[in-house]
Write a structure and sequence with these properties.
Layout (H helix, E strand, L loop, with lengths): L1 E4 L3 E4 L6 H11 L8 H10 L6 H10 L28 H15 L5 H8 L4 H16 L13
């Protein structure tokens, strides 16, 4: 089956990648300041061998997708924040890159459980549960028909 995208290009339906659209649905639902960074989140995750939803899901768990961060600090991941220590990034993009790189270099990224054992040693089970919830929310998000980039 061929689909016409934006009236110009035909592709096979199986080639259509709607992951950014699925992520956008969730970020919109949670009124996230990270809205618009879907492609960066996905591409950065893939660059470092992470599940495409992981970076967004961790931000969901740690900061409600960037809505609850330390004052005057960009860090939707809670990365390097403990006690009186606060690590801030220059932008959401820098945070995405920094956390993805750190996960790939310093963590066993084979499973969510193995990541959690290092990422959140205080409430590992809760962290896994919340992060898995957001992973599933993103992967199963339904894209409204009017937002699909299709012309039939």
């Amino acid at each position: 089956m061929l689909l016409i995208i934006s009236g110009k290009t035909s592709i096979r339906a199986a080639e259509l990648d709607l992951r950014a659209d699925q992520m956008r649905v969730v970020l919109t639902k949670y009124n996230s300041p990270m809205l618009g960074l879907e492609n960066i989140l996905i591409q950065t995750a893939e660059k470092y061998g992470l599940d495409w939803t992981l970076l967004a899901a961790i931000a969901g768990t740690e900061s409600s997708f960037g809505k609850h961060m330390p004052h005057e600090c960009i860090n939707p991941y809670g990365w390097g924040i403990y006690g009186d220590h606060k690590l801030c990034f220059s932008s959401f993009e820098a945070a995405i890159e920094g956390v993805a790189s750190g996960l790939a270099k310093k963590y066993n990224i084979s499973t969510l459980e193995s990541i959690a054992r290092t990422y959140n040693t205080v409430s590992t089970d809760g962290w896994i549960s919340h992060t898995r919830f957001f992973i599933n929310k993103i992967k199963t998000a339904e894209i409204p028909v009017h937002q699909l980039p299709l012309t039939l």
